[in-house]
Amino acid sequence: MTEPRWLSDDQQRWWRAYLEGTARFVDALDRAHDDGVPLSLGEYHLMVQLSEAPGRTLRMSELADCLALSRSRLTHTVDRMERRGLVRREPVPGDRRGVNCVMTDAGWDLLVASAPHHVEAVRRYMVDVLTPEEFEVLGRAMAKVAREARRALG
């Protein structure tokens, strides 16, 4: 068996800082959502994806990919949101098996009302903590990591 390529002390320190920082950042955003946004962080992200799509509509499979969720997990999330009147499912025209997720007007109104609180939390816990250069480097690095993980997972 081949010897593992162990992390150097510096790499280990930065890796652990990344893990802790990510966990604490997501926890802070979740708490901010609990305090002022009537959508979970995951629901908010879903609504943003729909809001940016033509007709505020995406195929469920496309939405699952955008959110890095299993189709099963997305189905449960959409079920909850559909019961609240925030989204609805519609058949894909010309595709008997395809299903679209569509943001309702009520969903749009809730997203618009929630956005300022969400953005303020993102600024408070990340954007304003980093210099513009650090924020850009972080974004570029994570885009690279996401591409590689997406490629590896097929």
UniProtKB/TrEMBL annotation:
Residues 1-147 form the HTH marR-type domain. It comes from the Bacteria. GO terms for biological process: response to stress. Gene3D superfamilies: Winged helix-like DNA-binding domain superfamily/Winged helix DNA-binding domain. PROSITE patterns: HTH_MARR_2. GO terms for molecular function: DNA-binding transcription factor activity. This is MarR family transcriptional regulator. It comes from Xylanimonas protaetiae. The lineage of its organism: Bacteria, Bacillati, Actinomycetota, Actinomycetes, Micrococcales.
